[in-house]
Specification:
By secondary structure, the chain is mainly alpha-helical. The chain has 12 helices and 3 strands; from the N terminus they run H-H-H-H-H-H-H-E-E-E-H-H-H-H-H. The N and C termini lie far apart (66 Å).
């Protein structure tokens, strides 16, 4: 099984496919795991891979307790790989042809109430480096709805403090997001009082104690720490604040297309769940205020 073929494919998806960093990492991981599965089952050439091979592999993932969404993504990764092989005439037939992804149950995202958001954002004490940094990050996350990968990838020149704007870059694309008053205040305080003293490098905005870019894992730990401190009985992740940001915007009259642009969704159908959640809350409130036995 040619290492060069896999290497060529990885270069192809890095350079040609416009995938987010997280999706790119997932596709690479999926293909490497699938390659290991083929080797374990004595399949020495990609030409030997059949539709049955792919189905059996997906079933093995299911037996391991992988979620429907993970299995669907694996199929998408494998399909992309074999389409690449087909285009290079390395194989004569795509074994994933006509294979359908398992249907994913759409889960309603967990969100925080405005009171819970305020409680969480009040936890960091900005009297030292960590508190000031964490306060700025949490305020910015809720003010902009950024993905965790986007917030840790921010550089100093992505923040336009005078214009109250944030530039979010993704591959060759970018979007510009306004920064709210509280987030701007926290950012200015962090940058002026702590960020400049730790590192003169104009690259990473949010640093760890070593002056390096904060990692994804580090950010998750920060969220968990303040969730526990706030005594909020919910499983809060960076994505929870992103969901809360979107629903609260729509609840307060924001247009769904504007929310779509801010979140960086490619398809408005992805954003529509937030509109449903906002309207559903309004429906409950009308019912509770109107029904004589509500």
């Amino acid at each position: 099984m040619s290492e060069k073929i896999v290497g060529d494919y990885l270069e192809y998806i890095k350079n040609e496919k416009k995938l987010t960093e997280n999706t790119l990492e997932a596709y690479i991981r999926d293909i490497m795991q699938f390659k290991e599965y083929l080797q374990e089952n004595k399949i020495t050439s990609f030409k030997e891979t059949t539709k049955t091979t792919v189905i059996t592999y997906l079933m093995s993932l299911q037996k391991k307790g992988k979620s429907t969404s993970t299995i669907s993504r694996n199929l998408a990764s494998i399909r992309c790989f074999f389409q690449f092989l087909l285009s290079k005439r390395i194989i004569d037939e795509d074994p994933t042809m006509n294979l359908k992804s398992p249907k994913c149950e759409k889960k309603i995202p967990s969100i925080l109430t405005i009171d819970e958001v305020n409680l969480l954002l009040s936890q960091p004490n900005p009297k030292d480096f960590k508190g000031a940094r964490d306060k700025a990050m949490l305020e910015l996350l809720y003010a902009t709805g950024l993905r965790v990968s986007e917030i840790i990838s921010l550089n100093m020149d992505d923040v336009q403090l005078d214009a109250s704007l944030l530039i979010v870059r993704e591959n060759e694309n970018y979007r510009v997001i306004p920064i709210g008053r509280e987030a701007l205040k926290a950012l200015k305080y962090y940058i002026t009082n702590y960020r400049a003293n730790i590192c003169n490098d104009k690259e990473p905005l949010f640093l760890n104690y070593s002056g390096k870019r904060l990692t994804r894992q580090g950010f998750w730990k920060i969220i968990k720490q303040y969730t526990k401190r706030a005594n909020i009985n919910k499983d809060i992740t960076p994505q929870t604040l992103r969901h809360s940001f979107a629903v609260h915007l729509i609840e307060n009259g924001a247009d769904i297309r504007t929310v779509k642009e801010i979140l960086g969704h490619s398809d408005i159908s992805t954003t529509q769940i937030y509109s449903y959640m906002a309207n559903n809350k309004e429906l409950r409130e009308i019912y509770n205020n109107s029904h004589p036995r509500a």
